[in-house]
């Protein structure tokens, strides 16, 4: 599955469009971002039920500001419209797969209950 390019206009719509959305905040000048890109793309081919999206922080500074992105690459995971993971750093493939497994395993009723307490 190909990755989706996110813009400020499309972000909220895409973030709510699937059970799980993974977002790579990146920039063309960023070496770690360029190394992480093929790992992210390969993972998108393995997980057709997940939306894999990319935000070019240079083209979309408002999104970087909205989410407090201070370092890139930053990987964000959204499950059922809730941000459940957001960490900077280029992950190797096994770690990205681990993040995906953990996001899939979340009990979202418990997550929502904790958010509301």
TrEMBL record:
What GO annotations for molecular function exist for this entry?
A: protein-disulfide reductase activity
**Keywords, ordered alphabetically:** Disulfide bond, Electron transport, Redox-active center, Transport
- Per the record, GO CC terms? cytosol
What's the source species for this entry?
A: Actinomadura namibiensis
| Catalytic residues, chain numbering | 30 (nucleophile), 33 (nucleophile)
Q: Show the CDD domains listed in the entry.
A: TRX_family (cd02947)
Tell me the NCBIfam families matching this sequence: thioredoxin (TIGR01068)
Keyword Endoplasmic reticulum listed? The answer is: no
Give yes or no: UniProt keyword Ribonucleoprotein.
Answer: no
- Thioredoxin domain location: 1-105
What positions are marked as the site Contributes to redox potential value?
31-32
Would you tell me the protein name for this molecule?
Thioredoxin
Q: Which cysteines are joined by disulfide bonds?
A: 30-33
Q: Which family does it belong to?
A: Belongs to the thioredoxin family.
Where does the record place the site Deprotonates C-terminal active site Cys? Answer: 24
